[in-house]
Amino acid sequence: MTKSLEVQLKTLPTNPGVYQYYDKDGKLLYVGKAKNLKKRVTSYFTKKHEYGKTRVLVKKIANIKHIVVATETDALLLENNLIKKYQPRYNVMLKDDKSYPWICIKNERFPRVFPTRKMIKDGSEYFGPYTSMKTVRTLLDLIKGLYPLRTCNYDLSHEKINAGKYKVCLEYHLGNCLGPCEGYQTIQSYDEQIVAIREIIKGNFKDSLNQFKTQMKAHAEAMEFEQAQKVKEKIEILENYQAKSTIVNPKINNVDVFSIISDESFGYINFLQLSLGSIVRSHTLEIKKKLDETDKELLELAITEIHQRFKTNSKEIYVPFKVEVGENFKVTVPKLGDKKRILDLSLRNAKYFRQERFKQIKLTDPDKHVNRIMSQMQKDLRLSKEPRHIECFDNSNIQGTNPVAACVVFKNGKPSKKEYRHFNIKTVEGPDDFASMEEVVYRRYKRLLDEEEPLPQLIVIDGGKGQLSSALKSLDALELRGKIAIIGIAKRLEEIYYPGDSIPLYLDKKSETLKIIQHLRNEAHRFGITFHRNKRSSSALNSELETIPGIGEKTIVELLKKFKSVKRISAASQEELSAVVGSSRAKKIYDNFQKNKATS
């Protein structure tokens, strides 16, 4: 296996989707679907294959492409579309012209409802496709049991019915049809049934499901257990039935779908090509920004390039916002429904492509990845140096009790946990975050200076202008102002504050710089609050020992030296306690904990 393939395998997503194998000449070899793309595709390269054909396929694979979808059912339908479109050499199944079944509501007076595998453009409504004919039959059985519909293919025009051309058949006498052919049922009554049936097919069959459950109970009470079981199976199928699929929609025909996601350096444009309502191609284009181009400019450039590359003849495009691509195209910005779902699917694939590119760079050239992020942070935060070493401070207290602070350290954008530090607040009384921040920052950098340890290039203060000003006082006292960059981040709107500047900086919410700063802030908060909880818990336990009459500080110290924690002291026997503090005090301690256990 080549190095390139190894990297692709490591960065595949774990979502449902379709994978495509290509040879060194770019020829499509195989299309498959997976519930978990990474697990399924990796298995080709790790298993020992029984069939020689599969072994030959694996040897020929030079490139892997994939399309991420929402569900395994969507993956199954998309796989069917792509195999029928491209006829890959190593696919055997699904190459015939047999397609998945649909349910058709015929465009006619007194419409028929029936299953079909072919779509005819005559104005009829088609629902599906369905991955199981069993689901189709269950739905039609449900509909037939609830609503009597005609099954004949007569032309039930108003004139022919009035002329008495037709006679009711056996279905009428069995109660399966109300006889519209002889005018026994009105068109209004029949159309009301069709409206209800349309809702059932779409998945809105709550009322119908309740009727099925009533039937099942009736069969069970009548001791007709076989019939009850059959109805139960239908209920289970219907409850698991998925009515909507974004992969195939007969109402969407010959459309190109484009979406974009971008960062500071690149734009990633995903293209989905729909033909006869089915997705037949997916491609993601990566464009490097040269002059800070907007998403609109990048998308317009990509649309032109993709149309030239794939020579599509679609006259309509779906995009997330208005673009200028000439008068030859109808531009649609979907807001709701199936069109919006297809656009969301395109955007999902663009996001996954971007994530995989970053993962691949990390694997193949980790230094390049770090250098890019550091350079971007320096640019975004207007720093004189790359922030290779960053430290972030956060205070934790509850109404002034057990005040503590935390300092977390990041090196090259990643946590350096062995350098994290906790601080007990020593000089501040009561809940004073500003004074606490001033004390902690001073102690931290006084120690680094005394020990001649390297200083960070950037300090991040969790808080707004008040906490930032307090930290600056300590830097001034240590004559470090101007030697270390310092910023504050406020939680409400993620504002970045600079010393002496009342107007905050707002970073792009999707920028990597903001994500690293948020990671720093969250780590400092997590580290600080954990220490605070432990201290509070320890304080509560220690105070329990202090409340025992006749037990002083020296006794508590002796006990903690021996048992290490108050929890172990409370679990010790009277004999074990006597060995440390004598029988008299041991009895007092033992009785106290036993009393507490009895009342708790």
UniProtKB/TrEMBL annotation:
<keyword id="KW-0227">DNA damage</keyword>
<keyword id="KW-0228">DNA excision</keyword>
<dbReference type="GO" id="GO:0005737">
    <property type="term" value="C:cytoplasm"/>
</dbReference>
<dbReference type="GO" id="GO:0009380">
    <property type="term" value="C:excinuclease repair complex"/>
</dbReference>
<dbReference type="InterPro" id="IPR000305">
    <property type="entry name" value="GIY-YIG_endonuc"/>
</dbReference>
<dbReference type="InterPro" id="IPR004791">
    <property type="entry name" value="UvrC"/>
</dbReference>
<dbReference type="Pfam" id="PF08459">
    <property type="entry name" value="UvrC_RNaseH_dom"/>
</dbReference>
<dbReference type="InterPro" id="IPR050066">
    <property type="entry name" value="UvrABC_protein_C"/>
</dbReference>
<dbReference type="InterPro" id="IPR010994">
    <property type="entry name" value="RuvA_2-like"/>
</dbReference>
<dbReference type="Pfam" id="PF22920">
    <property type="entry name" value="UvrC_RNaseH"/>
</dbReference>
<dbReference type="Pfam" id="PF14520">
    <property type="entry name" value="HHH_5"/>
</dbReference>
<feature type="domain" description="GIY-YIG">
    <location>
        <begin position="14"/>
        <end position="92"/>
    </location>
</feature>
<comment type="similarity">
    <text>Belongs to the UvrC family.</text>
</comment>
<dbReference type="InterPro" id="IPR035901">
    <property type="entry name" value="GIY-YIG_endonuc_sf"/>
</dbReference>
<keyword id="KW-0742">SOS response</keyword>
<comment type="subunit">
    <text>Interacts with UvrB in an incision complex.</text>
</comment>
<dbReference type="InterPro" id="IPR036876">
    <property type="entry name" value="UVR_dom_sf"/>
</dbReference>
<comment type="function">
    <text>The UvrABC repair system catalyzes the recognition and processing of DNA lesions. UvrC both incises the 5' and 3' sides of the lesion. The N-terminal half is responsible for the 3' incision and the C-terminal half is responsible for the 5' incision.</text>
</comment>
<dbReference type="InterPro" id="IPR001162">
    <property type="entry name" value="UvrC_RNase_H_dom"/>
</dbReference>
<keyword id="KW-0234">DNA repair</keyword>
<dbReference type="GO" id="GO:0003677">
    <property type="term" value="F:DNA binding"/>
</dbReference>
<dbReference type="GO" id="GO:0006289">
    <property type="term" value="P:nucleotide-excision repair"/>
</dbReference>
<protein>
    <recommendedName>
        <fullName>UvrABC system protein C</fullName>
    </recommendedName>
</protein>
<dbReference type="GO" id="GO:0009432">
    <property type="term" value="P:SOS response"/>
</dbReference>
<dbReference type="GO" id="GO:0009381">
    <property type="term" value="F:excinuclease ABC activity"/>
</dbReference>
<dbReference type="InterPro" id="IPR038476">
    <property type="entry name" value="UvrC_RNase_H_dom_sf"/>
</dbReference>
<dbReference type="InterPro" id="IPR047296">
    <property type="entry name" value="GIY-YIG_UvrC_Cho"/>
</dbReference>
<keyword id="KW-0267">Excision nuclease</keyword>
<dbReference type="Pfam" id="PF01541">
    <property type="entry name" value="GIY-YIG"/>
</dbReference>
<keyword id="KW-0963">Cytoplasm</keyword>
<feature type="domain" description="UvrC family homology region profile">
    <location>
        <begin position="261"/>
        <end position="475"/>
    </location>
</feature>
